Amino acid sequence: MTVAIEDYGLLGDTRTAALVGSDGSVDWMCVPRFDGPPVFGRLVGCAAAGRFRLAPRRPAQMTRRGYRGDSATLETTWHTDSGRLVLTEGMVAEVAGRLLPATMLVRRLSAPDGPVEAVVDFDPRLGDRRRRPRVEHRDSALVCRWSRLAVALRTSHDVSIQPGRPSVVTVTPDRPFTCVMSVADREPLVYVDAQAAWDSLQDDERRWQAWCEGIDRCLPYREAVVRSLLTLRLLTYSPSGAPVAAPTTSLPEVLGGVRNWDYRYAWPRDASIGIDAFLGVGKQDEARAFLAWLLSATRLDRPRLPVLLTLYGKRPTPERGLTGWPGYAASTPVRWGNAAADQHQLDGYGWVLDAAWRLSDAGHRLYGETWRTMAGFADQVAARWREPDAGIWEVRSDNTHHVHSKLMAWLALDRALRISGHHRTPARRARRWATERAALRVEIERRGFDEVRGTYTRSYGSPDTDAALLVLPLLGFHPPDSPRVRGTIDAVIRELDAGGPLLYRYPPRHDGLPGIEGAFLPCSFWLVQALARSGRSTEGDALFRDLLSLGSPLGLYAEELDPATSRHLGNFPQALTHAALVQAALALRAAREEPHAEPASRPALHAEGAA
Amino acid sequence: MTGAGLDWAGWAVFGLLATAVLTGVMISAQLAGLSRLDLPLILGTVVTPDPDRARAAGSVIHLVLGQGFALGYAATFALLDQATWWLGGLLGLLHGAVALAVLVPMLVGVHPRMATERAGPGSTAVLEPPGLLALNYGTQTPLVALTAHVAYGTALGLLLGAR
Fold this sequence. Notes:
The complex is a heterodimer of chains A (611) and B (163). With 611 residues, chain A is of the alpha+beta class. Chain A has helices at 42-45, 194-213, 222-234, 268-280, 284-297, 347-361, 368-384, 403-420, 427-447, 472-475, 483-495, 521-533, 537-549, 575-593, and strands at residues 9-12, 17-20, 25-30, 38-40, 51-56, 61-67, 74-80, 83-91, 103-110, 116-123, 134-138, 141-146, 149-155, 167-171, 177-185, 236-237, 242-243, 320-321, 335-336, 449-450, 455-456, 519-520, 560-561, 568-569. Chain B has helices spanning 8-31, 39-44, 51-80, 85-110, 141-161. In chain B, helix 1 (8-31) packs across helix 3 and helix 4 (85-110) packs across helix 5 (141-161). Chain B is elongated, with a radius of gyration of 17 Å.
């Protein structure tokens, strides 16, 4: 039986991540990085792709599951005939300066009420060919090897474990059973004693809790916001600072459908939204790290802004479907790589320049190189905004003139002009940006607005609307309470309603792919933000509470949700959704504190039309 | 180059020139979008986090290091009693291979602002680690670095041999 997407918990060390089901099975884990080959791939590759399960031997009821406080350590409790069995697990994130493996998964079973039999099913398979390892037993460790990669499993009990053959272990109150899985990629394995690994995990837990304590205590819906920030941080690749969109590939946007994409890459758009989210809660280092990644990763493509990049700023490998992988709930193909990398998406520049402006506005003076890069992006927008683009939704059909993209192009030029007010910029360059910004406004208002319906449209002359337009009140393009903003928000609510707090991102079936995808969760959080910024925070507040009730039991969100069943759809957990959740909470806070203090509503420098 | 010993004057002048050639090749490769390996930035961020200041400081450090390596080349030419473009090129190839396989990866252990592949959430380092053969800076980085070092060695061999 397929485990529901929302039943998975996220374990992570900020270099890679694992998804563990409520049945105690790690069904997804790539090594040594988020974008590496899976060593457990059952999530989309069936039993032949491997798993690592620790669970009660006999049928048992799961009675409790949650992260331990504000940490990344997950605890699952089952009720068995002979008492409770508790699985506590996590990955050790902080290994620098110590002789610990770069990837270490620690899992401990304890039985506080009396002896309980548990099953250990350790079955690693590597990569797209789901290769079985060469196996050997060495120094009380099970070692699995595939040429350059090796995985070792050490346990606290003397139990014989063979890959693919479930073993039984009896856990007693005085003797928890601890498993330590360490990974070595092109380096020697480090064998870690079970107790030392457990101590490291607990140290990590305290570090995560300390990290969370630094988050504003007065934030509305703080628990959900903190879980989202933790998730965002767990999905940030620490060695380069790259924000991974999601740790999975090909979790379907339609069950049994073909909308299955590889999200184990970093989108500059996500980094920009992440900057805003982390800045808003006072996590300056994380915000600056995203900007540093943006600068470094985009270097080979400047002044063009790539749509997505690998963790180290390279182009992804060409997209391909995996042969023989059955997919999640028979959703095929299972894809590796992402062809959206080749698209031209104009909106990306707006997100990035807005993030730079927010950092600058928060008092972080941009380095000369940073500003030159941003100015180069603005030049690119000024030169290319008249071209059609693929748009934020990466629809794989012909490019068109997306109104959201044009608005974000306007934003890019507007923010560049704002930053230029206090960073050295040639006057002629600034005049060009001002001229193009003014031209953009004229074109957007003339060709992107439907006077009859009173709303901006998905593309020029289109009868459709687009939930991405919900960013409108945040841009400063119109006052947040203007009729055009109100009309667009109302049109999105009216025309893209998916029931309850849910929205489709564009009208269903309007993307050339078979099937109707789920409601797009970030759009619902953008609606909260839009309502809060346009003086309708009471509505936004109610919507936000409804959305919180739709989160997974662990407070995680996928990209989409099936409006009929409330099942999560798409890659999981999704950084964009969690960043949008944080932004929505921040907007609600801003609306409560100072209803008219939105930074985007400040007057822009270089009055438009003053070319 | 004569068999009389090490050519100090040639080393002093041509070491700088050869380093300039190497830097030129690396910068050209960056501009052409082939590699993100930026030696002045990497070296300069040891002393300052500002990329512009770092590049200035790093360029000086790079010149000094280039001059130091040129001493090794000049000494080798003196020992072998010949300085030719092809011998310089071979030494450059060896130099580039050692730099990629040993020196650049070693930076993560000593550079205060360079993250390691093991960096965790507590890391405040902002420079990404170069990885094996500096491949994290672009798949063509090894080729670029080897070409730059071969150019460096060839330039030294040519210039010192011409004396």
